[in-house]
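Q&A log
Question type: sequence-to-structure
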Amino acid sequence: MNNESKIGYALQSGEGRIIHFRGTKMTVKVSGEASEGTYSFIEMLHPPNVGPALHRHPTGAEAFYVLDGEYTIRCGEDVYTANVGDVVLIPKGMPHNYHSGANGGKVLVVSPAGLENYFSGVADMLKVGAITWEMEQDIAKSTVKNSSTISSTGDNDPSISGNTPLLFTERVMLGRAAQ
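Response status: OK
Response body:
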């Protein structure tokens, strides 16, 4: 059911648009379109020991509210350990990343509007096969409000395999390429 055409709506637990992105189950609770371009609200269920590369969102802040598990969240030079009930705010434009703990976890993420379209676009491409870093950047530019909402702060990424969940984490940690 498309709730986005209504003025307001309610979703029950487990409801929302589902995106499977590199091993992470994402449930879009409020899309950028539904919020009239102000934010996206996404529940993310992560397997153990995964997370994205160091990156930034030049169009808006991002906030993480931990529902289950433990996360290590980098915000600029600061590193936070976030547990159930903790919130970490990432200011607009600040380099950041996160890493789920040994038991995985679940977070609610308030992100720049349209970020769910990037996740969906990449997930759709990965169903067909591996994609390059350049292809992923093209998806970001074409799907996220004010284009390049996602920008890597690391080196150019080699081809990303759809069979390796969130490969970026293994490549870029603490702002430098891992061996």
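Response note: DSSP finds three helices and eleven strands in the chain.
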